[in-house]
Amino acid sequence: MKHTKITILGAGHVGSHCALSLALRGAADEIVLVDTVPEKAAAQALDVSDGLAFSSRPVTVRAGGYADSTDADIVVVAIGKPRMPGQTRLDLLDDSARMIRTLLGQLAPFSLSGIVVSITNPADVVADALRKGLGLPRQRVFGTGTLLDTARLVRILSEESGLARASIQALSLGEHGDSSMIPFSQVRLGGLPFTAYPGLDRERILRRTRQAGMEVIEGKGSTEFGIGQVLSQLCQSILTDEKRVFPLSVLLEGEYGQHDVHCGVPCRVGRQGIEEIVSLPLTEEELAQLDHSCRILRQAIAKAEKAAGEPAARP
Predict the structure, then answer these.
(1) Are 235 and 76 in contact (CB under 8 A)?
(2) What whole-number distance in Å separates Cα of residue 49 and Cα of residue 39?
(3) Active-site option among 3, 13, 17, 176
(4) Where would you tag: which of 80, 275, 277, 281 has the fewest CB atoms within 10 A of its CB?
(5) Residues with Cβ < 8 Å from 199, sequence gap 6 or more?
(6) Alpha-carbon distance 46 to 241, whole Å?
(7) This prediction's pTM
């Protein structure tokens, strides 16, 4: 089988936990950590490697440089500052925009042949900037978007309904942030529609889903385990060509009536990246909620281009 390689740009809390989750899952043969502080990347790689002492699958974890992005099957962008208590993801916009511009300069000498997945916040805005700056098609540059929100939503629905998570089908869509929405018309709890559970409160569930990340940050200072797990699941699904459907932040070109914006929508992914954007039959109210989220994201994208110093190059 072909040797598989994942390069992670950013070896902080999030990047290192993504590396650990990928390695423990055996998602790739080689995992490379890259950081502006090379000593940190080297130390994180050693620490992850120590955790694989009794693993059944050999995985190489090492530190490297930006050149390791050229032949990587997947490049994960995990740079940026963590959110502080009280901050929204969009509050990180200015700093992240400048960091992404610097990163694009560091990647400029190299031609990327693989898929680029971003987990840097604000997730949708950063995914848009990376796609434009790298000049790659939307199938190959996207963000984890509302995949983590969806994991949190399923947990919350399980807690509220008493059902096992495996018996719940639900998605969070739109911004990975405070304007995310839940298409309750598509929720299935034990095979039944959401309306079959009159004791469940929609607003409470939406509020809990939106605040789930901040609840973790206020308690321990950062989120890391959840994103590590969803990122590793996504990467494994891509590399094994599973054709699974995940809510990811991809450029919309007419889907759901939206244009020129990245936001979380259900996507079928395979070895070449995003193969199809799945169009769910949303209600008029749900479409309006998604449109509201997209309008907020367009404003943020315009602000990010200004914060970066100049508009990102369009493909």
Answers:
(1) yes
(2) 15
(3) 176
(4) 281
(5) none
(6) 29
(7) 0.93
- Between CA 107 and CA 112 the distance in angstroms is 9
Please tell me the distance from the alpha carbon of residue 146 to that of residue 216, in angstroms, as a whole number.
Answer: 17
- In tens, the pLDDT along 281-305 reads 999 999 999 999 999 999 999 988 8
Residue 259 is among the residues annotated as catalytic for this protein: no
196 CB neighbour count, 10 Å cutoff: 11
Per 3-state DSSP, the chain is made up of helix, strand and coil in percentages (nearest 5) of 45, 20, 35
H helix intervals, the chain: 13-25, 38-50, 93-107, 123-134, 147-161, 202-220, 225-239, 284-307
Token pair recorded at residue 44:
């994180």
Alpha carbons 193 and 280: distance in angstroms, whole number: 15
Characterize the bridge pairing of strands 141-143 and 115-118.
parallel
Phi, psi of 310 (to 5 degrees): -165, 160
User: What tokens does 131 get?
Assistant: 């796609």
Q: How far apart are CA 201 and CA 220, in angstroms?
A: 28
Residue 62 and residue 87 in contact, taking contact as beta carbons nearer than 8 Å: no
Both tokens assigned to 278: 């799945």
The residues that bridge with 277 in the sheet, in sequence order, are 267
Query: 265 pLDDT band (50/70/90 cuts)?
Result: very high
Residue type present at position 225: F
